Amino acid sequence: MAKRLAVLTAGGDCPGMNAVIRAVVKTAINDYGMKVVGIEDGFLGLIEGRWHDLTYDHVSGILTLGGTILGTSNKADPFRFPSGEKAGTTEFSDISNEVIRNFERTGADTLVAIGGDGTLHICKGLSEKGVPVIGIPKTIDNDVDCTDYTFGFDSGASTATEAVDKIHTTAQSHHRVMVVEVMGRYVGWLALYSGIGGGGDIILIPEIPCDLEVVCRRVVERSRKGRRFSIVVAAEGAKITGGGTIVKKVVEESTDPVRLGGIADLVAGEIEGRTGLETRVTVLGHLQRGGTPTMFDRVLATRFGSKAVELAEQSKQGVMVALRCQDIDAVPISDAIAKLKSVPEDHHLIRCAVSVGTSFGV
Ligand code: F6P
């Protein structure tokens, strides 16, 4: 008998989620005659018993659509679900058994979960409790290990690059230093790619804590040479030597509770104070997660979605689809979440950026 799949999107949204859903549903129907059920709002839908059938009609015309037609949530970890409050603090409980019962009620043989590191941790937990899970790596941060790229990264980095391009106009016209804060909680891929792609003069990433003296010196040197503007591209998770990341708030019930923000303000304040050069800040925020996916992400999302269905048909479980040297492979979820994929300090893109005169503030 043909299999039945349940698909959900969890964690932060990003361009390409709908392209994956479309690929899963179309491949399941066209190649294997499977039925697909869509879980609403990520794991919250499995907790609250909300899902519906996904037909060809539901996914026609969504290839280029940003966001997710299924909805998502980053506050619904079945292993640590907010269950109430005691003395002003949120209490959590493990409701994974209820989630598993609900998954069984969907009638699906395999759960296809589209998400980042937090989602994949939940997948590993469910897989260890016997749920057949296949993961599909998404995030604009590109921090999931064992895959060359997550889908969503190319689109987010393209948006950030375009923003850095546009910031140049005001920087040049007003002879200002412009600090652009891009996303990237723990890793600097977004800042690195958009910094190189947008021609940033200084790139600040979490993996390389920066020395503000060096940053200021670079800005002043450029000014003395007649380049009367500078662009700094800073990952939200960038650090100053000896300091930590700047936490804006903590969302206790989230799968990744820390919300960052403020590094650009800090760096800009220091540059202006130490050099006397007018320095402004632009925080790109969720703009980077919005809009239509790039061609690269549409293709990657389609390949990921189709491969996930092929693996489900072969009764593979506990694996994540991954892009490895042009091919789409399956890797154990436990390997993919063993560590975050950060930027190695000797990465060829860092060497390349330095060769064209970009500083990392060290
Ligand atoms: O993980 C993706 C990401 O966009 C990070 O870059 C960012 O720190 C975080 O999500 C923001 O999450 P939220 O949308 O919940 O504020």
Structural class: alpha/beta
Q: Portion of residues in helices?
A: 25-40%
List the uncertain runs: none
How far is the first residue's CA from the last residue's CA? 61 Å
Indicate the CATH architecture of the largest domain: 3-Layer(aba) Sandwich
The CATH topology name of the largest domain reads Rossmann fold
User: Please, how many domains?
Assistant: 2
Radius of gyration: 22 Å
Question: Can you lay out the helices and strands and say which pair or pack?
Answer:
Elements: E1 4-9, H1 17-32, E2 35-39, H2 43-48, E3 51-54, H3 56-59, E4 81-86, E5 89-93, H4 96-106, E6 110-115, H5 117-128, E7 133-137, H6 153-174, E8 177-182, H7 189-197, E9 202-204, H8 212-224, E10 230-235, E11 247-250, E12 258-260, H9 263-275, E13 279-283, H10 295-313, E14 319-324, E15 327-332, H11 333-336, H12 348-355
Parallel strand pairs: 1-2, 1-6, 6-7, 7-14, 8-10, 8-13, 9-10
Antiparallel strand pairs: 2-3, 4-5, 11-12, 14-15
Bound molecules: 6-O-phosphono-beta-D-fructofuranose.
Characterise the protein shown here.
This protein has 362 residues and is α/β, with parallel strands linked by helices. It has 2 domains: 4-151 and 293-336, Rossmann fold (3-Layer(aba) Sandwich), CATH 3.40.50; 156-288, Phosphofructokinase domain (Rossmann fold, 3-Layer(aba) Sandwich). It contains 12 helices and 15 strands. The strands form 4 sheets. It has a 7-stranded mixed β-sheet with strand order 3-2-1-6-7-14-15, with helices on both faces. Strand 4 (81-86) and strand 5 form a beta hairpin. Helix 1 (17-32) crosses helix 10 and helix 8 packs across helix 9. Bound molecules: 6-O-phosphono-beta-D-fructofuranose. 6-O-phosphono-beta-D-fructofuranose (F6P) binds next to strand 12.
